[in-house]
Design a protein that fits this description.
Helix 6 runs antiparallel to helix 7, helix 7 packs across helix 11 and helix 11 packs antiparallel against helix 12. The chain is built from 13 helices and three strands; from the N terminus they run ααααααααβββααααα. The chain has a three-stranded antiparallel β-sheet with strand order 1-2-3, with no helix packed on it. The protein is mainly alpha-helical. This is Integrase/recombinase XerC. It comes from Pectinatus brassicae. One of its GO terms (biological process) is DNA integration.
């Protein structure tokens, strides 16, 4: 008895319009199909933009450097592109995401039965020594609090300045609570439990509750209270952090805008300079993990606070060579002027 073509059956179910697609038209319209297989079929606009940008970059590079059509690429074409990315001195995480996007592009084509196998299936970013301590990617407690207090959040009349208060709050969440850029971006008003003093954090791989410092919650409350007018819901909920420009007022702030704001502040504080590309929002998250470990020497506590899946990720903070000032929970001497 002949076997069923499961791949074709799945393609027909997921992509009912597949009979009208060939290899040429797929490359032109791949975005219509890609959105169904990324982020469980419900990608945010920010996520879609990131994936589309990486795939378009690959297609342009492929058209210029490969002598075959995109859906005729083999594994050696993908590895050549990976070598090209490494020659640009990009970080491992950046290369990893670019290759993930390409993998999803070919996965969509495969599910449409346009190709028999995914040429990017087992091609990943080359692993570096991920367990080595990153000794220059954190701040001391004093430097972190100085960075927080650099932002003047009130004008001469004593009124709060929304953008300044927002950016100070973002720094506090990253440096004191260990939040990632994507978690700041995705935070919703509905996720805040004022009575329980918790916030439900929606991560890329898993979600969990955090228990923020009282001063961080107080700052959050002030920020939400000064917003002018109601905040409209989007597909994910009511955004906490929004754009302040008149053109897109109250729209959810993008991950790129978060990085831009934080990097500008780090540069202003002489922490980030143009020749120190390793400094970014993740600097603040590393600071949180480092300060907690140096206070408690408790890796399990670091793991829970940073929401790591295993202790291996948390153990790098135990390998820091410098001694930090004490910092954790209620004992953290957070003083926001």
């Amino acid at each position: 008895m002949p076997k069923k073509n499961i791949s074709n059956h799945f393609a027909i179910t997921l992509f009912p319009e597949r009979d009208f697609i060939d290899t040429t038209s797929f490359v032109k319209t791949y975005k219509n199909f890609l959105v169904r297989i990324i982020a469980h079929g419900h990608p945010s606009e920010d996520t879609k933009t990131m994936y589309f940008s990486q795939i378009d970059n690959f297609l342009r590079w492929s058209q210029k450097n490969n002598k075959v059509e995109p859906l005729q690429c083999k594994k050696h074409h993908i590895t050549t592109y990976r070598d090209y990315l490494y020659n640009k001195n990009l970080k491992e995480a950046t290369i990893s995401f670019k290759l993930t996007a390409i993998r999803k592009f070919y996965q969509a084509a495969q599910q449409l039965a346009l190709i028999s196998s995914n040429p990017a299936d087992d091609i990943f970013a080359l692993k570096t020594a991920s367990d080595k301590p990153v000794t220059d990617k954190y701040l001391t407690e004093a430097s972190l609090l100085e960075l927080i207090n650099m932002l003047i959040i009130k004008d001469s009349n004593g009124n709060y300045i929304e953008e300044m208060l927002r950016d100070r709050l973002i720094i506090a969440f990253m440096g004191l609570e260990g939040l990632r850029t994507v978690e700041i971006h995705g935070m919703n008003v509905e996720d805040i439990g004022w009575e329980t003093k918790t916030i439900f954090i929606r991560g890329q791989k898993h979600s969990d509750f955090i228990y923020p410092h009282d001063e961080v919650l107080s700052l959050l409350q002030q920020y939400l209270q000064i917003k002018q007018g109601p905040i409209p819901r989007d597909k994910s909920g009511t955004p906490v952090f929004t754009i302040v420009s008149h053109n897109n007022q109250f729209s959810r702030i993008s991950r790129q805008s978060i990085r831009k704001a934080i990097n500008a502040l780090l540069k202003k504080a002489h922490i980030r300079t143009d020749n120190k590309k390793n400094y970014s929002c993740h600097l603040l998250r590393h600071t949180c993990g480092s300060l907690i470990y140096n206070k408690t020497k408790d890796l399990q506590l670091v793991q829970e606070t940073m929401r790591h899946r295993d202790l291996k990720s948390s153990s790098k903070y135990a390998k820091r060579q410098k001694v930090f000032l004490q910092h954790y929970a209620k004992s953290r001497p957070v003083k926001m002027d």
